[in-house]
Amino acid sequence: MSASPVVLLLSGPNLNLLGEREPEVYGTATLEDHVAAARARATELGLELEHLQSNHEGDLIEAVHAARGRVAALVLNAGAFTHYAWGLHDALAAFDGPVLELHLSNPHGREAWRSTSVVTPVADAVIQGLGGAGYRLAMDGVAALLGRNLPS
Ligand code: DQA
User: Which residue CA neighbors atom 9 of ligand 1 most closely?
Assistant: First the structure.
């Protein structure tokens, strides 16, 4: 049996505080809850999910570098790095597989500075504003981007 394609989920700064942080914006589920939901859906889709959370841009950049040639697709909730981390943008531009940008909230409906994303220009797809459901849907999204048939 051939190994399942690996999907790497990257979580940026402050997402380790989900569940406690601004629950009126981000809900009460923890990051672990979201990763578990995504992993369950990934398994149904025949994908293997890996996850890394970091509050440091360099860690995320190095994870993208290490993903090159090994990981089939990236899902990235870059948190506030979304709005200004050009080093992360450049790392994503050097990744060969599909990239899906993910947000719990809809940044465009919030402060004006959140409407700029340095990730979007190097993303194949964006899921935002669907809360925790976005994590499960992101797995369907990458499966589609990888050309896999979605089970119903
Ligand atoms: C976020 C939106 C960002 O603007 C914010 O800085 C975050 C979370 C989201 O998931 O809605 O940390 O990426």
Answer: 103
